[in-house]
Design brief:
- By secondary structure, the chain is of the alpha+beta class.
- It has nine helices and four strands; from the N terminus they run H-H-E-H-E-H-H-E-H-E-H-H-H.
- It has helices at about 5-10, 25-35, 55-65, 85-95, 110-130, 145-150, 195-215, 225-230, 240-250, and strands at about 50, 75-85, 135-140, 160-170.
- The chain has a four-stranded antiparallel β-sheet with strand order 1-2-4-3, sandwiched between helices.
- Helix 2 packs across helix 5 (about 110-130).
Amino acid sequence: MIHNETIDTLLNRRSIRAFEPEPLDEATIATLETCAQHAASSQFLNDWSAIRVADSALKEKLAEIAHQPYVATAPLLYVFVLDEYRNAQIAKRKGVDVYSDDFTLRNSYRFSQAQNDAVLALHAMETAAESLGLGCVILGSVLGDIPELIKLLELPEYTYPVLGLAIGKPAQSPALKPRMPRDDQFFEDGYCDDPDLMLERLDHFDAEVHKYYDLRDTSRPVDAFSDQIANQATNRSVLKNGFEHAKQQGFVLDK
């Protein structure tokens, strides 16, 4: 492989869940937020925003939603949201009825694209933070109670929370999590759908993942990768959180 500072930053990314208590300076915050703004945006709609959570009581409430106390200790905490509210205000000023079928920014395709844009911006911020020697953890866990999160962050219609991001100076140095074989995620000229070949190569990855989790916390054994996938494949608790709450925020989504 070729190596440079950017590549090594990406290759060495890991989730940090323990932070030093010192706050981050304004120059660092401005740098991270500007890097997020420079991520790609579908059709330049700029259809994402981020809530910087500074209030300690609000951090505690987000930690409760996430069932992860360390969320409240992050010196810098964001919740990224897909955001068509701003574009709705622009369209309304130009005479568009934003509650009619003519307002297409609230449909399933735009919802997905705005969600993608929010994730791209978050990832740009995460990479920038890690390049500065900071630690990060992406927080899907803040979506554990979406109605409460929407209420706490005062999110208007045509917005929807996507992910959280906690940032700070790392107070831990966990081992790198193993990655699955490259040939199982990169195909040439078409998808390789031979299940026997795919699953045979994943056997070794299963063993690596199991060993990784065993070494990380011997008191909490974790299933092998394949077992984790099988368990999540039938987890209905994830489904009930999303669709109806997005409709309540004004989006017209197909199941």
